[in-house]
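I'd like us to work through together how a protein chain folds, taking it slowly. To get us started, please write out a protein record for me. Go ahead whenever you are ready, and we will take it from there:
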Amino acid sequence: MTGVAINTVHTQAHQVGEGVRRSDPEAWRTLYHELGEPVFRLVHRMTGDEHLAQDLTHDTFVAVAEKGRQYTGRGSLRGWVFRIAANLAKERLRREKARRLRVEETLGRRSDRSEAPDTELRLVLDQALARLSEEQRAVLLLYDVDGYTHPEIAEMLNIAEGTSKARLSRARAHLRDVLRHAL
């Protein structure tokens, strides 16, 4: 990419960020066009539920619209939007887990949450991923599946780059251990 192309991309991102702060409809359309699908993929990977991911994608852009004036322009707009999406997904997962535990407690037993797997390996992998903390799972999926770098993940999740690396290492170690015993 040439210096001119990089500067053009940076300038366009800056203009969209300024438009978001001013509640410019064209900036919103551009932002959604550019980040709608990546946000959906992020929250879908975090939740494992397509319908919930659609809801969270919508909620993310509503939150971005409501908080647009709070965007300072110091970090990337993409990272700011992804941080909002990740925080919404984590909060929704916490609420769902608390609700599920209340229901199970009320019923006096654990509910069966398993669904028919495509393959045995997929089931084992899904169960291993579910055992990871939300933080470890988010970093693992963003890095290994979606291909983001540690600096990008750090910005998206509002954590230090070293924290991203440590969470990835712990997540991989946990998965190796679970898969070694399951297979």
